[in-house]
Write a structure and sequence with these properties.
Oligomer: single chain
Number of helices: 15
Number of strands: 17
Strand order of the largest sheet: 16-15-14-13-9-12-11-10-17
Structural class: alpha/beta
Radius of gyration: 21 Å
Strand content: 15-25%
Helix content: 25-40%
Largest sheet: 9 strands, mixed
Distance between the termini: 26 Å
Shape: globular
């Protein structure tokens, strides 16, 4: 998760900061010109025969997960469609819900009274808040709670016939991934939209760069190295009255069962772009290195602070991903793609995209804009709501499943020190987290030891 995602309020005007082969039907097939704002965005195909009646009238929106990202997503949803109205909100914590509601009202300004209609009886707190939001008469739900809960929240939403925006990652473990695959099938059967928050797929400059790559500007892609090297995320010291479970959830970035570790929660963006660069190919296996070089203290939980993953493909080629969360070290969040005719550097944050031949001659260059970097969060909602209105719902859930599983298998390989196959990762029976949810005891904190940890 980038710094802009952690705040969840970028460009909102706020005062404060495997298994399913049909995945091909949900991947990027080329750039289009968006109807709003001129931002270029990927075309994501709906399944054959999925045209539904056009939707008119209000679209009632429910927000599940009221942190910074949820607050931002709610404002973006309201700005995406003039008929969207926020009517229900839910979170495990009442203070988060309260501050989120206030921030959304502030962001909507003069339109707040008309667009934010969430009375006290539609503000739900607790572990069952998600189901209460789903049952509150909504048409669209925004799933932005902790990643651990995403599979259950998604299942509840699609079974109830709701359109969905689901933040990445889609799960933190293999049982969760398999549940999401089933939910994607339900969404297709019920003709529901499902957009996943791999937002770089909705960035115009990035789409142009990958289009040039896939058109062969550097020849055949032979290897990719994506990076996500950044600083440590926030820590929240324990407060009096917090149970063990609340302490872990308040520090969710630092506990694997809640977040999936930073390779899954944050660096999955870069892993998704690795998959994009390789034309959505699935690796057959991966080997990884990882550990804790700089983390200490209870707020740092059990997660690693660095990973290196080597993905092996069926034709003998390899791709690489590295990520790090350590303060005082250089940052890097770029994609390095190597082809038979040259290489390409993709840097979305600058934004800068450049392909060169082996002699250093520039073969292609692209220049996105800072507005597109911030605008991609808005554009994914623009396209979601437009697809609902037009009766041709977007479904990119299965593409998001593969990117999530690539990140999960990388973590498995690093934690265990073993080479992990795709099917082995997908079929793992290990479920992370407590069996039941109550404000009391929490999962035991045990830092994995490669070579000793059994993670299945």
């Amino acid at each position: 998760m980038s710094r802009s995602e952690r705040s969840g309020v970028q460009n909102l005007g706020l005062s404060r900061r495997g298994v399913i082969k049909s995945v091909a039907a949900a991947v990027v097939v080329g750039p289009v010109v968006a109807a709003t704002g001129g931002v270029r965005a990927p075309a994501v195909r709906a399944a054959p025969g999925s045209v539904a009646p056009r939707v008119t009238g209000p679209l009632r929106v429910g927000l599940i997960g009221c942190g910074g990202r949820g607050t931002g997503a709610a404002v973006q949803a309201l700005r995406a469609d003039a008929g969207a109205v926020l009517v229900a909100m839910g979170d495990a914590f009442g203070d988060r819900l309260k501050s989120s509601h206030a921030a959304i009202v502030e962001a909507m300004g003069d339109d707040a009274e008309k667009r934010v209609q969430v009375p006290e009886e539609k503000r739900f707190v607790g572990f069952d808040a998600y189901q209460k939001v789903i049952d509150a008469g909504v048409d669209v739900v925004l799933l932005t709670s902790y990643p651990h809960f995403r599979p259950a929240h998604l299942r509840g939403a699609v079974e109830a016939g709701k359109h969905v925006f689901a933040e990445k990652p889609l799960a933190v473990d293999a049982p969760g991934v398999r549940s999401v695959i089933e939910s994607c099938a339900i969404a297709e059967k019920k003709n529901l939209a499902l957009v996943v928050g791999f937002c770089w797929r909705y960035n115009g400059g990035m789409v142009d760069a990958f289009k040039a790559l896939h058109e062969g500007v550097i020849g055949d892609v032979v290897s990719v190295h994506t990076t996500y090297h950044t600083s440590t995320l926030s820590k929240r010291p324990r407060k009096e009255g917090w149970s063990d479970l609340e302490f872990q959830m308040r520090n969710w970035w630092h506990f694997c069962w809640v977040s999936g570790d930073h390779i899954v929660e944050q660096a999955c963006h870069s892993i998704d772009r690795l998959k994009w660069a390789t034309r959505e190919r699935r690796p057959v296996q991966c080997t990884a290195l990882g550990g804790r070089a700089a983390r200490s203290g209870p707020e740092h939980g059990d997660v690693f602070d660095h990973f290196t993953v080597i993905y092996d493909y069926d034709d003998g080629t390899r791709a690489f991903h590295t990520c790090r969360q350590i303060d005082g070290c250089p940052s890097d969040n770029m994609d390095y793609v190597y082809g038979s005719k040259g290489s390409m550097v993709i840097d979305g944050w600058k934004p800068r995209y450049e392909a060169k031949d082996r002699a250093g001659k520039v073969l292609w260059s692209g220049q996105g804009s800072a507005a597109e970097v911030g605008g991609m969060y808005q554009e994914e909602h623009n396209r979601l709501f437009r697809s609902i209105r037009e009766g041709v719902p977007i479904r990119d859930g299965l593409s998001g499943v593969d990117s999530t599983l690539m990140a999960v298998m990388g973590r498995m390989a690093a934690y265990t020190g073993q080479t992990i196959g795709w099917d082995q990762a997908l079929n793992s029976t290990q479920r992370l987290g407590p069996e039941t949810y109550a404000w009391g005891p929490a999962p035991e904190v045990v830092v994995p030891i490669p070579g000793k940890t059994k993670f299945f």
